[in-house]
Amino acid sequence: PPHSNPTPAIPEVPPDPLEQQRSKVIEELLFTERDYHHQMQLCCSKVLPGLSRVPDFSIDVVFGNIAEVATLSGEFLAELQKVCKEEKTVGKVFVMFAVRLRDVYSLYCRNHDTAVATLEKYMENPSVSEKIRGSLDLIRRETQAWDLQSLIIKPVQRILKYPLLLDKLVESTTDLKHPDYKTVRSARQLVGQVAQDINEVKRRKDLVVRYTGPTQDRRGTVSMHSIQKKARRIKQALTQFTGLRSKTVDPQFDEEEQKLVSLESMLRNLIRDIQTWQDEIQRYADHREMLGEGMALYCSDLPALSDHQRLVKDLQQTVKAHARFVSEHVLTPLQTLLSLFQDPLHLVHKRRDKLLDYDHMQYALEHAEEAEKIRQLREACLLAKRNYEALNTQLLEELPHFLQLVVTALQHIITVLVQAQYTLHSELSEFLETLSGGKIEESRELQAEHALGVQTIAQQLIQLSLVPASLAINFSAVAVGVSRAETRRISDSSPIMRLRQFFREDEPEDIEELPEGAELIVLYDFRAQDRAEMSVSSGQAVTLLCPHDRIGCREWWLVQAGEERGYVPATYLKPSNDTEDR
């Protein structure tokens, strides 16, 4: 048979090593993202529910927004898997999620140091640490985390892992025509910026902790270096105040600082005013008790004295109970709220110092001439700027939220205070009603009756040679302080009115029947208390216009002297001799 030539073999194209490397990187990205998301799901579904039932265990502090991290990881993984089934342009997935990665992971990483410190304290408690280990036993076979700290650090490690994986993708994606060439480089830039932002957030928080932490000595250390810094800052502030040097101005921060200072001052004054009010209420109760003791010395035979002493004792108990309530539910929360201002105010002061340092370095850099000096000042200026901007940014981010929370808490505390005051006032009103034997509205009638009774006594004092007439008249003028509107409410059948009639036996019984136009003589000086009344002097002649007021009360007469007219108490008047003759 004829010999046939074999078909020449097609040479195999060797695989592109860069493409192989790229595929391995994508496989690593997908595998590690699946494992990471699985562990976040285990944490949220099995660990958190068990620990949420542990008393005094703060889920929010230890885990932060880990639920939001788990949700984002699931969405990110789903999009990665979808893209890798098609064209494997993973770069656009990172670009799509860059903003959310920054926002969610920044919040988590900012809280991480606090979470670790809090968890360490919990582990010192045997019962709590046992519950923590028990919750981890539920997922021990499904995770490589050996303790809770190694679990809660995974989001921090993951966000910092993304730039490293993208670096490998950039190295393996060199073909300009590759569909992922541009997007993977954009993704590397964006995710790198996300990592920088997260590091900057952590650096800012570390700076805040440095200035406000428990080990910070607010008095500072006295050294030659610290003295030189303080002197330089004072000089910078003075030259800026006089206009000799420029000053960096931030109106937004200045507004927030003013709010902070004003709110702190208002809170301090509120605490002082409440304490003063408490002291006044207690002083009132003490004076009531002293009054009762005085009455017991001179009026021990009064049948109502024991009731009065019992009421005063109840009043003391009511006031003391109110003071305890306000101290516990109002003053203590307010003082705690006030203590929260210490760190923000200290940071504002530190921010002011760092701004002075930055402005000083700027000024020195502008006037430097030597190259080496300029290099040193530029580095120092950059460091001062970073420190100033870190504090400034942190304060601008957190001060508005802090102030809003303080105002909200203050509203709740003031609501409790108002309710406590309302309760106290109700109990005091009940006390006064019981003490006066009637309603509070009727106590004004008692006051008016008392004033009229004192007037009657004053009239009798004038007739005594032992008492100077001027003192008796002054005593009467004080009693007249009760308004005419209140005296109108006095009934003619009241004991005081009957007493007044008894002391006026020497006056004609038909004095009320005097005709209009009758001439009267003023017995005592009288000073008007409102517009309807008229001031008169002892011995003054007046003309009677009406022997009662508009509502028929005969205790006030309308009289006229010249062109002036007004009401005068009837007991201050008597008919002139001419009128009596007629």
Question: What does this entry look like structurally?
Answer:
This protein is mainly α. Helix content is 70%, strand content 4%. The protein is built from 18 helices and 5 strands. The protein has a 5-stranded antiparallel sheet. Helix 1 (17-51) packs antiparallel against helix 7. The longest helix has 66 residues, at 371-436. The chain is elongated and about 165 Å long. The chain starts with 16 loop residues before the first helix and ends with a helix.
Summary of the model, kept short:
The protein has 582 residues and is mainly α. 70% of the residues lie in helices and 4% in strands.
What is the number of helices? 18
As a percent range, the share of helical residues equals: 55-70%
Largest sheet: 5 strands, antiparallel
Our measurement of the CA-to-CA distance between the termini, rounded to an integer number of angstroms, reads 179 Å
Features:
582 residues, mainly alpha, five-stranded antiparallel beta sheet, 18 helices, 5 strands
Secondary structure layout plus pairing:
Layout: H1 17-51, H2 59-63, H3 66-84, H4 90-123, H5 126-137, H6 148-152, H7 154-172, H8 181-212, H9 224-241, H10 251-298, H11 305-339, H12 342-367, H13 371-436, H14 440-462, H15 469-479, H16 484-487, H17 495-503, E1 519-522, E2 541-546, E3 556-561, E4 564-569, E5 573-575, H18 577-581
Antiparallel strand pairs: 1-2, 1-5, 2-3, 3-4
Helix pairs in contact: 1-3, 1-5, 1-7, 3-4, 4-7, 4-8, 7-8, 8-13, 9-12, 10-11, 10-13, 11-13, 12-13, 14-15, 14-17
